[in-house]
Amino acid sequence: xxxxxxxxxxxxxxxxxxxxxxxxxxxxxxxxxxxxxxxxxxxxxxxxxxxxxxxxxxxxxxxxxxxxxxxxxxxxxxxxxxxxxxxxxxxxxxxxxxxxxxxxxxxxxxxxxxxxxxxxxxxxxxxxxxxxxxxxxxxxxxxxxxxxxxxxxxxxxxxxxxxxxxxxxxxxxxxxxxxxxxx
Length: 183
Fold this sequence. Notes:
Layout: H1 3-13, H2 15-27, H3 33-58, H4 62-65, H5 69-88, H6 102-125, H7 131-155, H8 157-181
């Protein structure tokens, strides 16, 4: 996996966090600097931890599935990509919701990083050490989330939907590449 592929994977995985950050910026009446860094930190940390968990969990059954692991990686990434594409088409309104409370951020960070768990498993199938990609994914998500919350009031939900759509398409394409490389 090249640095460019890791960067693209990081961008695709951060699409959900970007969309939520945009919504937080758009739907919150006041966003403090500490709020911007708090949401970015939560999303970045969880996006960095989840691939590591997926990578290590894969060791439990890697020897059993090595002959068809490329199919699993493609299936997982395609499933996540399709889910993101479907989510990108749903209309959402601003809710009376505190995006920046610790409890809310914890739940949102887990929800937006589940796809990174599957990506970690896919990285294992490629025979790549996880720590650099995980750090790169975490850093990318931190920056994307910070950008998202900053432009949320100006750009609105539409940009977030397009980010999820684009991220979903990218994950499907990465899955197809993994599948083709497995033959």
